[in-house]
Amino acid sequence: MMGRSSQLRRRQDRAYAQALKRAERRDRRSNRGALTPEAVAYARRNRPAFTKPKPLMPRGYVGEYGGKWGLMPQLATWVSSSVQVPGLHPFAIGSARPALGVPLGPDLTNWSLVYCDPITWFLAGLISNPSAMVFGIPGMGKSSLVTRWIAGLCDRGYPPLVFGDIKGEHSPLIRELGGDVIEIAPGLHTINPLDLGALLDAAQRIVAVDWVPDPNHPDGGKTGEQVAAELRELALQQASTLIIGLARLVRGAALADFEETLIAVATRLVHDRTNAPILSDLIDLLEEGALDEGTAIEELMAASVSYSRTDYRKAVRRLLQTLRSIVQGPMGVIFNGPTTVQIRVDNPGGMSVDLSKMRRADKKVLAAVMIATWAHGFSAIDAQWELAMAGLAEFRNPFVVGDELWKPMSLAPGMAGLIDQLSRTNRTEGIGQVWVTHSPKDAEKLPTHEDRETALGLAENAGMVVMFGLAKNAVDALDETTVSMNAEERRCVASWRSPRSFRARRAPNGRPKPPPGAGKALIKVQGATGIAVQVVLVDEEMRLHDTNERWGRRGLRRRGR
To answer: To which H or E segment does residue 295 belong?
Structure first.
């Protein structure tokens, strides 16, 4: 740099000497005398500063008087709304997106704050279904988005309900919000598939009160006894559906039509004859098949299309083997006994079923517990709605979180349709839902074409689809649904999956920094351009949401040594 300055100075000196000579020649032509002081002053005034144009660099002009800076200043970025900013800068242009919902973070295109959640956008008429489907590989920020939605919607009066938290990552936040956390593990709790649960309790409470039929009532002016009978019937249907699901998981294949009918008939019969029956009672009823009452055996034989006791025993043999495997196998510790846990949905802080202690269990056992908690959870929502309609309780529209959706779906044919059936309530308009999974390609792992179509239908029917970093082929798989993306949106989603560099870098807390695409998501609503957002959690949320708790700072330091 010093060499270039010296060259410029020499050029300026030469230019000054030439100017003096020109002034002397002009003076001699005019006065025929020596150089006057006026001529010297004229030369000084007209001395050029630069002899040639200097190059313009990103940080200024090169050379003396060029204004080159050694470092460009980083200007502070301030985010505000178009309502507040015009007072300071009247030319601000706000986003066309409404500021409605839970704040997520800055827009990656214009750095305006993005507000979004499935319930608020549904109530505002921006989407037709209060549900969301979230895709993303591990470590990209799916759980962070769900954490922000749980905290934000709970503050707005929508209690979060997590029916099957495999990692237990939401339990600290639910406790902080004042909600209930139920831990399920072998030897800790049991779940009775035959338990009619909250629906039966609601039916009994409704019958116990003076019910005056009202034609304007949502139930059409039915009596309390009629409503209670309908609830009991619904509870029986859900119990038989749950048992069918458990049988499919154990067998690894779909049941025959008559076997499903047998389970439904036996479920009703065992409840008519036994108070609080368990799964062993159902098996005994099917196995004996010849009670003193002739009506029971006749119904079971009719369901199995058997014309004799011998035909019945042959027809029911394989089903009994499957059900015995549930009772006497690894699932028996959890499912063969009275229910010891009650799922409540009336807590304003929400609730979570923590399955983190079952992560090492058999995958079929874990999947069975997941669908059992989903079934009992949605039944509790239905029961709470009916109690609210009867004036016996308060109904708060819940925000239901379903994680690791594909685990039970991939274990047996027909499980996708079963889960879809379990997740549907009679009053679906009162529930907000979010389903979380890794990739749209997970649907290809399902055993049958019908299962794959059902799984992809969850994304098609969702009010919004949120995509974190995905592989290119996973993005292409969404073309089979109604979620269509342009070339730039595809490029962004695929680029967020880029791996981190091999250079080890640590965050201020001592842990490895997340990959470059962590927290970046594309929100797609059918028929609209996607919204690229950087999801940002505050310090308190980061403290409560730690997906790598076992990789603490001390442990990392030991490994670093």
So the answer is: helix 294-303
Contact 537, 144 (CB under 8 A): yes
Helix (H, G, I), strand (E, B) or coil at 223: coil
Band of residue 1 on the pLDDT scale cut at 50, 70, 90: very low
Q: What is the pLDDT of residues 483-510, one digit of tens each?
A: 778 888 888 888 887 665 555 555 555 5
Residues pairing with 354 in the sheet:
165, 183
Alpha-carbon distances of 176 from 61, 182, 244, 372, rounded to whole Å: 57, 14, 37, 26
Q: Evaluate whether 224 touches 209 at the Cβ level (below 8 Å).
A: yes
Strand partners of residue 542: none
Q: Identify whether the C-beta of residue 369 lies closer than 8 Å to the C-beta of residue 408.
A: no
Please give the backbone phi and psi of residue 381, each rounded to the nearest 5 degrees, phi first.
-65, -45
Q: Which amino acid is at 8?
A: L
Class of CATH domain 99-170+397-561: alpha beta
Q: Using one digit for the tens of pLDDT, what is the confidence trace for 232-269?
A: 999 999 899 899 989 988 888 888 989 999 999 999 99
- Per-residue confidence (pLDDT) for residue 506, from 0 to 100: 57
Q: Are 300 and 289 in contact (CB under 8 A)?
A: yes
pTM of the entire predicted model: 0.76
Q: How many angstroms separate the CA atoms of 362 and 427, rounded?
A: 34
Any idea what DSSP says for residue 513?
Answer: P
